[in-house]
Amino acid sequence: METQKPLLMDENGEEVDVYMYRLIIGSLMYLTSSRPNIMFAVCACARYQANPKVSYLFAIKRIFRYLKGQPKLGLWYPKDSPFDLVAYTDSDYARASLDRKSTTGEAEYMAASSCYGQVL
After folding, report:
1. Highest mean pLDDT range out of 2-6, 18-22, 72-76?
2. How is 17-52 classified by DSSP, letter by letter?
3. Beta bridge partners of 103
4. How do strand 83-92 and strand 103-112 relate by DSSP bridges?
5. Angstrom distance (rounded) from CA 53 to CA 13
6. In Å, how far are 55, 56, 68, 70, 114 from 16, measured between CA atoms?
7. Number of structural domains in the chain
8. What is the pTM of this model?
9. Does 109 or 14 have the greater pLDDT score?
10. In Å, how far are 20, 22, 49, 85 from 95, measured between CA atoms?
């Protein structure tokens, strides 16, 4: 997401196919389980699924460019080794200045079961 230009309601913009936009958002939401660093940007774009515009599609394309540039960054959950995953989430409804929609954050901690009581 651009830090100097927030994603705002665009009522006059050109419309985008709703089904394509929702398909892209769904794919990105699935990807956030291993890439929590894109959670905020994806959720900000997901707010506009009812009436997507071209400007929101540009924000999604920016997310894809970021993912392409950082292919090895993310969480990898090992299939065979035992580990414990602890996740915390928080929602804030009061500080969304535009429409009072939820802003969500999360933190995930992963450790091998045998490492409890030790400094990782």
Report:
1. 18-22
2. -HHHHHHHHHHHHHHTTT-GGGHHHHHHHHTT-SS-
3. 92
4. antiparallel
5. 6
6. 9, 9, 23, 27, 50
7. 1
8. 0.62
9. 14
10. 30, 26, 21, 29
Q: Residue 46 is encoded by which pair of tokens?
A: 């997901």
Provide the token pair at 62: 């920016």
Cα-to-chain-centroid distance, residue 15 = 23
* Residue 5 lies inside a defined structural domain of this protein: no
Residue 109: what are its φ and ψ, rounded to 5°? -125, 130
Average the pLDDT over 21-42 and give the result. Answer: 86
Domain that holds residue 72: 18-115
**Residue 13 included in any domain:** no
Q: Tell me the pLDDT tens digit for each residue of 48-90.
A: 888 888 888 888 998 999 989 988 887 776 677 676 767 777 7
